[in-house]
């Protein structure tokens, strides 16, 4: 149906008979887009994109329709299925065709940051969404929760980030329903990276950090007999471990296991054939293909300013309040110096119980408070010099 | 018909002095001007637009309103390229009908907004050149405004201006409705009459300073009783 093709709408109850009828009637039409799109579209595609045919755009509309070799590439849907991530769609003419010159600018420019510490993962971002000089939205949300234990910061084009986060949330939920457990942060990062890969080289711009907490759940099919309490571990190994590993050790009370393990437990764990990591996870995923694991990331036009504050203050042993104030200070300094960051700051904290959001704070007040402080300090200094 | 400006950068006037060799290329987009505004109140929503359709130096029509009624509780305002506005509203109408037939209920404002976001993003690589603003009542009966960018990024606001005069109108709305950048002012909630008056004043100011805005103003007020439309004349020059 023309309507379905125009709207990219797929009726779930479309039966094969009607499909064949359409194929029959449209066969004679040489410039037919419907046949190719009906046959290539499947229900497992992540998103149907309309890709313009470069040839049609080069010609002026007066000569429209007189092109000899008509390509049916104008209504191809991008076929990405998580079942076969290696099959890259060959019908995408992205890198070679010139894209349509857009008459409007897209939203860019931001400061987002995330780091890991003993109390979990902290993510912070500003809220200004700018559009080449104009502030399109002073109260946008750049940290989007994906599920109860995973949060993603977004940087780049806001439409791209919002939609791809939605698609990621959908795929993670399907994974959870199919496999009975949540996908780890590492897995989610890999999934997002593979979903964005076919669009490498196009103007899609997504730079996200995924901050989450893995595990903490009992795996399916695990037997009660193999549940081991790791708190009773030998004291000799503890002194060799770093802060991070000690923390993970005290945390894991059930079946999950940190990377290092002592030999006494090895037999039972290998018998289970399942080693899962539990704890915080922080990954950076970019639409140009980068996928990195780390403990501290800052993304966006204001990131150099944020990095200077974070590198100075972030340690593993921070308390939650200290970490929150460092994150806030970093975003504040970045908004102070970067023109494309500003307005308010959002802070999300992810622990084993899920994410919690701190109320959005307007940084305008902070500027005035700082000015007051400076004024008081200046006065104090003057008094000292006078009395000397 | 080839217009006097040729196929230059849409929305900008072509330079009439010699700047050097210029490559002319067909652009599938055109900028037809127009401004749209939406305000959400406690139990009402207002969507207003001017009715001028222009292209470059010419005015094609003085009676082309940019608000389209979608359901009994939702109105959408589309400004930008008129061709894409028409097609987009046809697609939205079709999707609304499909939803009604398969789910036996009308789409809520929030659902329409989410659907429009995916429709727009489906054309990420050849976008609809339309600035959309949806105004309506949500499930609880409160006013809701959803503003979009041309590729589908959206969020819910209390007020938003879009289109050619948006950069001029948005600060005025921030000040008058959001009480921003003012000290020591009591934050009074917006009543329906005050909101309508404010919208009229704001468009009169827009028509003064923006060449693409003028002719007439179409205001749609959405309450639980229904949608009420008024037309107010503006500057015609």
From TrEMBL, chain B:
InterPro entries registered for this protein in UniProt: Ntn_hydrolases_N, Proteasome_bsu_CS, Proteasome_sua/b, Proteasome_suB-type
Main location as per UniProt: cytoplasm
Highest taxon listed in the record's lineage: Eukaryota
Residue ranges the record marks as coiled coil: none
One Gene Ontology term, aspect cellular component: proteasome core complex
Classification via CDD domains: proteasome_beta_type_1
Protein's UniProt keywords contain Mitochondrion: no
GO biological process: brain development; cellular response to ethanol; proteolysis involved in protein catabolic process
Subcellular location: Cytoplasm; Nucleus
Pfam families in the record: Proteasome
Ligase in keyword set: no
Keyword annotations: Cytoplasm, Nucleus, Proteasome
Assembly mode: Component of the proteasome complex.
Record's function text: Component of the proteasome, a multicatalytic proteinase complex which is characterized by its ability to cleave peptides with Arg, Phe, Tyr, Leu, and Glu adjacent to the leaving group at neutral or slightly basic pH. The proteasome has an ATP-dependent proteolytic activity.
Similarity section: Belongs to the peptidase T1B family.
Protein name: Proteasome subunit beta
């Amino acid at each position: 149906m023309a309507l379905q093709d125009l709207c990219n709408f797929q009726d779930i109850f479309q039966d094969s008979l009607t499909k064949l009828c359409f194929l029959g009637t449209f066969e004679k039409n040489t410039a037919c887009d419907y046949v190719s799109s009906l046959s290539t579209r499947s229900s497992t595609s992540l998103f149907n994109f309309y890709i313009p045919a470069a040839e049609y755009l080069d010609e002026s509309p007066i000569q429209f329709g007189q092109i000899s070799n008509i390509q049916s590439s104008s209504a191809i849907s991008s076929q990405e299925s998580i079942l076969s991530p290696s099959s890259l769609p060959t019908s995408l003419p992205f890198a070679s065709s010139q894209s349509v010159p857009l008459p409007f600018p897209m939203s860019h420019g931001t400061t987002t940051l995330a780091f890991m510490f003993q109390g979990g993962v902290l993510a912070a971002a500003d809220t200004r969404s700018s559009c080449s000089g104009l502030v399109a939205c002073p109260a946008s949300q750049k940290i989007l929760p994906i599920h109860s234990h995973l949060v993603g910061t977004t940087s780049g084009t806001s439409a791209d980030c919002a939609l791809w986060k939605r698609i990621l949330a959908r795929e993670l939920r399907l994974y959870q329903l199919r496999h009975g457990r949540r996908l780890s942060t590492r897995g989610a990062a890999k999934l997002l990276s593979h979903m964005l890969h076919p669009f490498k080289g196009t103007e899609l711009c997504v730079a996200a950090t995924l901050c989450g907490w893995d595990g903490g759940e009992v795996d399916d099919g695990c037997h009660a007999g193999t549940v081991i309490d790791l708190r009773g571990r030998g004291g000799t190994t503890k002194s060799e471990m770093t802060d991070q590993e000690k923390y993970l050790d005290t945390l894991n009370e059930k079946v999950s296991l940190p990377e290092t393990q002592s030999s006494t437990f090895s037999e039972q764990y290998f018998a289970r054939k399942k080693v899962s990591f539990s704890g915080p996870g922080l990954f950076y995923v970019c639409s140009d293909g980068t996928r990195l694991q780390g403990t501290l990331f800052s993304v966006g036009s204001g990131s150099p300013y944020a990095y200077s504050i974070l590198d100075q203050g972030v340690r593993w042993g921070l308390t939650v309040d200290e970490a929150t104030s460092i994150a806030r200070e970093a975003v504040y300094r970045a908004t102070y110096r970067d023109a494309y960051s500003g307005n308010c700051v959002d802070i999300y904290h992810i622990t084993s119980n899920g994410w919690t959001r701190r109320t959005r704070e307007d940084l305008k007040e902070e500027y005035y408070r700082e000015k007051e402080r400076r004024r008081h300090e200046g006065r104090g200094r003057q008094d000292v010099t006078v009395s000397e | 018909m080839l217009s006097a400006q040729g196929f230059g950068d849409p929305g900008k006037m072509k330079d009439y002095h010699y700047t050097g060799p210029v490559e002319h290329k067909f652009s599938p987009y055109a900028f037809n001007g127009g401004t749209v505004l939406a305000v959400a109140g406690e139990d009402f929503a207002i969507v207003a637009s001017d009715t001028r359709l222009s292209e470059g130096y010419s005015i094609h029509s003085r009676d082309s309103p940019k608000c389209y009624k979608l359901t009994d509780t939702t109105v959408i305002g589309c400004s930008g390229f008129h061709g894409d506005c028409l097609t987009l509203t046809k697609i939205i109408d079709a999707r609304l009908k499909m939803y009604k037939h398969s789910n036996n209920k009308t789409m809520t404002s929030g659902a329409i907004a989410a659907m429009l976001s995916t429709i727009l993003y489906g054309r990420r690589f050849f976008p609809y050149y339309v600035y959309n603003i949806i105004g309506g009542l949500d499930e609880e009966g409160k006013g809701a405004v959803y503003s979009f960018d041309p590729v589908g990024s959206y969020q819910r606001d209390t007020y938003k201006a879009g289109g050619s005069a948006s950069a001029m109108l948005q600060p005025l709305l921030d000040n008058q409705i959001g009480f921003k950048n003012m000290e020591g002012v009591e934050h009074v909630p917006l009543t329906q009459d005050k909101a309508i008056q404010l919208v009229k004043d704001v468009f009169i100011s827009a028509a003064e300073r923006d060449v693409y805005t003028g002719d007439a103003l179409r205001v749609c007020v959405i309450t639980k009783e229904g949608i009420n439309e008024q037309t107010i004349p503006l500057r015609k020059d």
